[in-house]
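As agreed, record copied across for absentees:
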Amino acid sequence: MFGGGLRPAVSGVKALTDDCVFCKIAAGEIPAKLVYQDPEFVAFSDINAQAPVHLLVIPRKHYPDILAAHKADAALLERVFAVVARLAAEKNLEADGFRLVCNTGRNGGQTVKHLHFHVLGGRFMGWPPG
């Protein structure tokens, strides 16, 4: 381990945390069904799918939540939305629509402290959500 619980840069990506499951997926240390990857983002199928299409889109760089990401790099959100749009097109979700979810904090239902977006589609999504 490299001081402070951080690993060195990987392929131009800034430090990742040693104990974060999504950092490990992004680094290829934990297998996942990848559907998209580029130098900045990784997308994979959720192992606890709540819809016929349930993807998780994560930045390779570790941000604990959307608030930290916005503070550090507000333009990241524009870039992740471009990835979401591309995946929606590839998964044929554009015509009927999809839900994009970003849980933040305990009351928001965030269970993994690494910024991630759920892309859910392939069925009707009721409201309110839970």
Observations:
- The chain has a mean pLDDT of 89.
